[in-house]
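INTERNAL TRANSFER SHEET
From: sequence group
To: structure group
Subject: Membrane protein (TIGR01666 family)

Please process the attached sequence and return the structure record in the designated field. Keep the field labels unchanged so the import script can parse them.
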Amino acid sequence: MGINFRELLQFFKSADFSKAILVGVAVTVPILLGIYFDYIEIGLAICFGAFWSSPSDTSGSYRHKKIGILFSAALVVIVSFIGGYLDLPIYILIPILGALTFLLAYISVFGFRASLISFSGLLALVLSFAHELQELEVYQYALFVGLGGLWYLFLAVLRHRINPTGEIEETFQETYLLTSKFLHIRGQLIEPGLDRKKLLSELHKLQEQLMEKHEKLRETLILYRRSSGRSIYHSKKLLVLAQLVEMLETAIAKPLDYSSMEVILRKRPQFVELFQELIFRVSAQLEAVTYAGTNKKKLPQNGDLHKGLKAIAIEISELKAEPHNENLSAYLMFQNLYEYQEQQVELLKKIKWLLDDPKEDELEFIDEEYARKFIAPQDYDPKMLLSNFSFQSSIFKHALRLAVTVMIGYGIGTIFSFQNPYWILLTVIIILRPSYGLTKARSKDRIIGTLIGGAIAFVIVSLIQNTYVFAILGLGSLVVAFSMLQRNYKTAATFITLSVIFIYGILRPDIMTVIQFRILDTVIGAGLSFLATLVLWPAWGFLNMNNNLKNCLVANRNFLEEIAIFYSSKDKEPTALRLTRKKAFHETSNLSTAFQQMVQEPKSKQKKINEVYELVTLSHAFLSSLASLSSYIQNHCTTEASEGFKSAIGHIEENLQRSMDVLAHVGTRDNFSVKNLEQSFENNRSKFNTIAWDFENAIKVGEERNLQEAHLILGQLRWLFSLSGKILSMVSKIESEVSDDIGGK
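Return from structure group:
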């Protein structure tokens, strides 16, 4: 019960709920004032303008949010003006409607913010059929719609002034919680004999979510400093974000692959318990940080963490006290794993210290120019409109698909004399997404939500006939619906239906007919959307898998190259290394997302699904090994890079390059032998390090640190080489069928 109450409290504090309240105020006040002063048409126009401009009010950069709302307001003015003159014969209206839908949807080529502006325009276009002007001229109506957009912008700015850090704090809380879950699963994976497939799948999904949160926080914090100057608050939060990014890399890192670790852990189960206990403590403390909020007194203490580290250190020292060569691998693995966990503890302590409000002169702020390198600028070049104008572009196909579906939907609604044909169009523009999986899920949730909402509304209107009650329920349902849109679409659809029915219940006496048509229109709109993704230029996942694989391989190869450069040049700044790391994490997450979309598609379109899954798993394992190397060389003084190290890197890059050649349909230069390449790699072991693999002697001469480095570096290189070879084999296996399918399209 305590947890449920806490979650409910978090929901009421959330940005989603406050935005829903804002939208409720934005649409209600103009209507109430319009009724009071007998200018209801003006009130409705302002209400529509505010409502249509609200989609751009989403988390991210405050400056981008304001610009987005302004552009949305400008677009809905233009669309409302055009919509006022669409009283045309149906054979002329339908093609114009399709062309306008395509143009508005095509704006999405400019990225996420543009897609929100595009959605505002589509809402204005569709709902222009819902309102016939009685007193206002078309240009007057359009201007009042624009005023509604400015009214919403005013409210959004006011909300930001009242609580300027609310969204940032909420995103950080979500990031702490996701990182905590990520660490907890990492701790579970240490357990020997575990079926890791399900846990690794969960881990990949969490990694995707964390990458998204990190990107959102980077944009918000860095662009704020760029537009408003340095703020102590934002600078501190940027430091916290840096620790969270390092925590993710360190969590992904491990000293050996799981199969090798399992052999050692089975023989020494006490280490499993000790390491799990420490990892779970770090995870629990991050969760505690989540719910501490701004209350410094609730921040957890470091005592338990130090106790956990000390217990592991004692066990490792006992292993070191018996320097037999059969204990060497175990000692080196546990020591490296211990140091990874020690690093995690230090990062967590740094986060808590930063949240405890240290003095400004104690902080080393991140340079603004350096920070801006980690922001990917959105390209707004008009040439993108031309470069995407082909069936190779997913946005082009989606815009065309949406336009055709809207034309069909309006045609059906008009021919069969539906009460509100625009409800079909509204359902289509909300449900129809670029991917099959998301459209299918939204169609199902929308229909179920509408049926539930219709049933609840039927019961209520059968018992109550009071318009004031309908008004309160309609507004309340609207607020709940908007607050749930990003959390649970089925619930949102239920409350949207309730809101629409109650509002119509105030305006019209035949509310039962409204319920029937609402359900019918929703089912038709959802059905059309689902069929459109199947037959109108479908964007199946396997068609783009080639590019996703290629991008992932290129990013991982670049990350590997920067690791090699950094390892060889000890005095080099790690900026390039961290930029390529960010790109590798991003592209690996994109590959996972593409695979998840593929899984949601019809079985007949899941080409080589098992092989693709194996490739996704190999890519994550490859990134994990790269993260292990990257984390180690950045946090330890290392020896000079040997010829064996450079040669091993070359062999791994050779496998990656050959994989990319296969994906690019470039013929290989020779019929190389994988076995010969493997033998060549193993021959490098003697050249890798001149230290003898003698545990006792290394301790005597104080060189166990060098031995530890050699063990980790060589272990990771051997694993990377093995993974790159498997990637090459798997890419070769799946490419022929994927290429045939692409060629047939």
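Handover comment: The radius of gyration is 29 Å. DSSP finds 30 helices and no strands in the chain.
Transfer complete.
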